[in-house]
Amino acid sequence: MELATLLAALEQEPKHIYSSDALNMHSSITALAYDSRKVVEGGLFIAVPGTHTDGQRFLGEAVRRGATAALGDALQGQSAPLPYIEVADVRIALANLACAFYEYPAAHLCTIGVTGTDGKTTTSNLISHLLEATGHRTGLMTTANFKLGGQEWENTTRQSTLEALEVQQMLRQCCDAGVTHAVIEATSHGLELQRVRGCNFDIGVVTNITHEHLDFHKTLAAYRRAKARLFEMLDPQRDKGIGSRPTAILNHDDSSYEILKPYCSVPILDYGIDTPASVRAVDLQLSANSTSFRVIFPDAECHVETPLVGRFNVSNCLAAIATAYSQGVPPADIAQGLATVTGVAGRMESIDEGQSFSVVVDYAHTPDSLTKVLGTLRPVTQGKLLIVFGSAGERDIQKRPIMGRIAAEMTDFFVITDEDPRDEDREQILREIASGAEVQGKREGKDFLCIADRRKAIEIALKRAKAGDTVLLAGKGHEQSIIIGREKLPWDDRRVAREVLRESL
Ligand SMILES: CC(=O)N[C@H]1[C@@H](OP(=O)(O)OP(=O)(O)OC[C@H]2O[C@@H](n3ccc(=O)[nH]c3=O)[C@H](O)[C@@H]2O)O[C@H](CO)[C@@H](O)[C@@H]1O[C@H](C)C(=O)N[C@@H](C)C(=O)N[C@H](CCC(=O)O)C(=O)O
Ligand SMILES: Nc1ncnc2c1ncn2[C@@H]1O[C@H](COP(=O)(O)OP(=O)(O)OP(=O)(O)O)[C@@H](O)[C@H]1O
After folding, report:
1. Which positions does UniProt annotate for ATP binding (predicted)?
2. Which of 158, 159, 197 to mutate to test the pocket of ligand 1 (most atoms within 8 A of CB)?
3. Which of 132, 439, 440, 451 lies 20 to 30 A from 190 at CA?
């Protein structure tokens, strides 16, 4: 694509162009890259500041790899070794360039953004499944997986909402594959850092807003504000000519309802279990292996049976049901679709090697999700409830003692362990979690253990379990790696649990 065409899409006048004499506006840009290691001959390098370093430090590498030009914020006291386009906001620029480079794919798709503290991945998968089951072709981008026209693969990036470049590239692939609906997990980071700019969302969905990522957003108000961006992006006048109906799907049971309502200028379709809502679940039957409930719509009813377990999954189902209903999918088809749903990898996943107790791997890593998962497991556990968990390094430190308190209040025994300590002191993280348990009167050595090595922690918990007990391995879910220092080591809670069970049986 011609450089001049790309720059016209910036929506901001370049503040300055260094070495402009060497820049040919008619040159054809072969690719965009925000990582110098991925620059190709004839490409445009977008230098983004990060938490560990700044893309501007890699202008030299961009030159060596044959970049035509670079673009970024004001240069930090260095000269530009290649033509450099200075802009006021590099993240907006990255998103706008990506939209233009991939020829505005969101204009041709019904785009659905899913946000919330917990349940985004599950709900996104449920929406995709429901739409597929009712004859639509979907694309999907979540923390756990990607889907494109019937093909599915794992998300191994350890990032939930990818950068705008990958998001727009995937949307282009969706268009080319004949996809009609694209479901995008939109995290608060993703919304704040412009990763989903240009997605032209038709539908915004929220699961809930509780306590998470205060490291990044600093206050709960700022975190909520970031989530609200998704709903501000919905436009009642948006008509892509594909029959999509702009709608905000809000959770009437959650405090986010009142927070987000003022930001919605499109029709709201709310869902709920505890409170009167347009799409409401009643007569819940929760068991250890399945869930059934009745859904009351404004003009119909249907009965739902699903293999998903836990009350929180009824809420996730309702978000997906309301989304499908808002786009005209009949309730009877919705009920049929949910009957065939399979759970998301690493969410309430049972590990069965023939042992006499239950082992469940789950991705709960926030206070709210931990509370809900333990609340789901307690009534189906005859014996003791044990948990192995931690809290990630370089992420929301305030939640650590809260997680410790929840384990103290809701389990019979727990082992605090590593969950991606990153560059932090791993023992210090464990101590911060433990402090919340100690306030509840729990004592290390008697009521709980602190064992940084996650494999050892799992071994100890599984060896301690007796018939009828449940051991929850929380926080890593589907993840295939554990980050210690700057190193990403291979890891899988499910594999480790199976290995330990096989060794000890
Ligand atoms: C904390 C954070 O937001 N990190 C993001 C950030 O990484 P970083 O700050 O470490 O980047 P950096 O290493 O300082 O590098 C800065 C820039 O220089 C570039 N670089 C770096 C090295 C090099 O040799 N050449 C080069 O060009 C990098 O590509 C980057 O663009 O910039 C990277 C590239 O844009 C992102 O991939 C990365 O997301 C990481 C993977 C991440 O974990 N982010 C988390 C916090 C996140 O976004 N989480 C949300 C929420 C999840 C949830 O709700 O649970 C998510 O959507 O995933
Ligand atoms: N609606 C919900 N409310 C509270 N907890 C939930 C809900 N749905 C799922 N959970 C719990 O949260 C964990 C993560 O679920 P899921 O991956 O769907 O959420 P997520 O919002 O995508 O998480 P992340 O932001 O880390 O990607 C699950 O393993 C489960 O323990």
Report:
1. 116-122
2. 159
3. 132
